Amino acid sequence: MRHFALSLTAAAALFAGAQTVHAAPYAIDGTHTFATFEIGHFGTTTNRGRFDKKEGKIEFDRAAKKGSIEITIDVASINSGTAAFDKHLQSADLFNVAQFPTAKFVSTGMTFNGDKVSEVAGNLTLMGKTNPVTLKATQFNCYNSPMLKREVCGGDFEATIDRTAFGLNYGVDWGFPKNVRIVIQAEAVKQ
After folding, report:
1. What CA–CA distances, in Å, run from 158 to 36, 41, 162, 184, 188?
2. What is the reported pLDDT for 9?
3. Are 7 and 50 in contact (CB under 8 A)?
4. pLDDT at position 19
5. What is the model's pLDDT at position 154?
6. Which residue, among 82, 15, 27, has the nearest Cα to 50 in the 3D structure?
7. Strand spans (E) along 62-169
8. Sign of dihedral through CA atoms 41, 167, 9, 56?
9. How far from the centroid of its chain's Cα atoms is residue 9's Cα?
10. What DSSP element (H or E) covers 90?
11. For residues 187 and 6, is the Cβ–Cβ distance under 8 A?
């Protein structure tokens, strides 16, 4: 598959499934794929950021309701829009990118509602710890792109994770929340 730039947990929500899959490969459309994370800041505002660099493999068979995904994220590509905050996020206080340069999501299954993906389950490895994560689809659709002349599948997905399960404990004692919301919009083009 291709390398692509987007943010987390990213397109991971699109496709997951069985170990043996006879499905078509799909490539992430970087112009229609973004992933962000959100965490409260002292109960006043919400801090947001994204990861800009990822690579992965996606296979998907909508008719058979099967697929698989494996996404590796370059954690150093974190982007909050503020260079000083990015540097702190990369530090040993938070993501510790020197010791844990990548995060990885590997699918374990998907749930359909009719012919639409309603959730994707998988395992997220972050800071050397692996935990299950389920991404719920708020919408999902496949269509024939009039521009690309190929099938495109995608949707909006979200999950809330407990960051302390991955060792991201910074600020919890000061009142920063443990829960982080992951929001993903993703589209992938059938190859």
Report:
1. 10, 20, 14, 6, 17
2. 37
3. yes
4. 41
5. 86
6. 82
7. 66-74, 78-79, 102-113, 116-126, 129-144, 151-162
8. positive
9. 2
10. helix 83-90
11. no
Residue type, 153: C
**Run means of pLDDT, 10 residues per run, the chain, 191 residues:** 36 42 81 86 92 81 84 90 96 96 91 89 96 93 94 90 97 94 88 93
Distance from the first to the final alpha carbon of the chain: 10
Q: CB–CB of 13/157 below 8 Å?
A: yes
DSSP 11: G
Owner of token pair 């905050």: 85
Give the domain ranges of the chain.
3-190
The yes/no answer on whether domain 3-190 falls in CATH 3.30.390.10 is no
What pLDDT score does 1 carry?
40
Q: What is the number of alpha carbons within 13 Å of residue 165 lying toward its C-beta?
A: 12
Encode pLDDT of 142-172 as tens digits. Answer: 999 999 999 999 888 899 999 999 999 999 9
Residue 149 has phi, psi (to 5 degrees) of 60, 35
Instruction: State how far the Cα of 99 lies from the Cα of 84, in Å rounded to an integer.
Output: 20
What is the sign of the dihedral through the CA atoms of 33, 39, 40 and 45?
A: negative
